[in-house]
Amino acid sequence: MTILTVTLNPTIDISSDVAEVRPTHKIRTYNQRRHAGGGGINAARVIAELGGDPKAVFLSGGATGALLEDTLLHLGLAFEAIPIAGFTRIAFMVHEENTGLEYRFVPEGPDVEAADLEKVIEVVKAFRGEFIVASGSLPHGAPVDTYCRMADIARQNSMRFVLDTSGQALIETLARASVYMVKPSRGELEKFLGHTLDEAEIGPAAHRLVEEGRAEVVCVTMGGDGAILASRDGIFHLPARKLEVRSAVGAGDSFVGAFVWALAKGYGERDAFRMATAAGTAAVLTPGTELCQRADIERIYAETPEPDRIEG
Fold first, then answer.
1. Based on the structure, what is the number of domains in the chain?
2. Is the CA virtual torsion 268, 202, 302, 56 positive or negative?
3. CATH code of the domain covering residue 47
4. Which residue from 98, 147, 264, 312 has the least number of CB within 10 angstroms?
5. Does 291 score more than 80 pLDDT?
6. pLDDT tens, 108-157?
7. Which of 120, 171, 170, 161 is nearest to 256 (CA)?
8. Model confidence over 188-221: pLDDT tens digits?
């Protein structure tokens, strides 16, 4: 195994369809789907879908944690579940057919103890591979420097650390540690910087993080405006494809998983960027909490041109 994914606040993702969302009334849903979720778990699912062999480590608690683990067992995904006292959260998404709108309800999740986090840290210390992917929010009780510690361990063991988080966890990690790759959305990058960005400012802002030594690679996902890649080689842009969006759930996680998988397979950064963009695009073609499918990723990747270099 060359890739370890870390999920400190996993979910059981449930999605359903409904004709119309109305207050007060009992709303009958249908087409219910259930998947193991959370940033790192989703990234591992995508890596496995592409033929990779990742290992996922995550915190798991209560009857809902047992359900999460059972779901992963059925996927055949290698994992290590660290038990906690609290219950693994359940996230719920509803697609309203009359409007095409998507409603996402994501609870905060359980409190965790320092001893629980230390067990995850021990797994990270013991891992010997090429990539450690830390993705998702920090649970209550986790210090804001948790990902920073993991990044330091990865560097000490000559592994590449990939970060996909937001808020204070992102700020603290990029302030105190150097990571290989970070993937903020446009909104997350703006919150990190403390101000809004015009479209033309996004690439240079991402590249400054590279110049400052905070990350070797910065990928900024921008929804309908495509994505930006900033590295020592420059700043590159891929536009979004025009297509019907069925669900945006997991698009960012799909991007990260495909990017890391491609690098592990020997792709260069720009080709990995193309693969990641294809996976993010493929994810919006699937309903609810389903992620991208390999056939869609490969087809879209083959149709994706080389990214355009833009001025920094």
1. 1
2. positive
3. 3.40.1190.20
4. 98
5. no
6. 999 999 999 999 999 999 999 999 999 999 999 999 999 999 999 999 99
7. 161
8. 999 999 999 999 999 999 999 999 999 999 999 9
* 78 touches 55 (CB < 8 A): yes
- Given this model, what pLDDT does residue 250 score? 66
Residue 118: strand, helix, or coil = helix
Report how far residue 288's alpha carbon sits from residue 92's, in angstroms, rounded to the nearest whole number: 10
Q: Within 10 Å of residue 242's Cβ, how many Cβ atoms?
A: 6
- Side chain identity at residue 160, one-letter code: R
pTM exceeding the 0.90 threshold for the entire prediction: yes
- Are the C-beta atoms of residues 260 and 5 closer than 8 Å to each other? no
| 183: CB partners within 8 A, 6+ apart | 162, 163, 164, 218, 219, 220, 221, 252, 255, 256, 259
Q: Would the pLDDT of 248 be above 70?
A: no
**What pLDDT score does 249 carry?**
64
Catalytic residue positions?
253
What amino acid is encoded at 55 in this protein? Answer: K
Residue with tokens 């210390």: 125
Answer yes or no: are the C-beta atoms of 65 and 83 closer than 8 Å. yes
Q: For residue 87, what are the CA distances in angstroms to 2, 33, 56, 59?
A: 30, 20, 19, 10
- 292 — pLDDT class (breaks 50, 70, 90): confident
Over residues 59-87, the pLDDT tens digits come to 999 999 999 999 999 988 999 999 999 99
The domain of 136 spans 3-22+29-310
Contact 260, 3 (CB under 8 A): yes
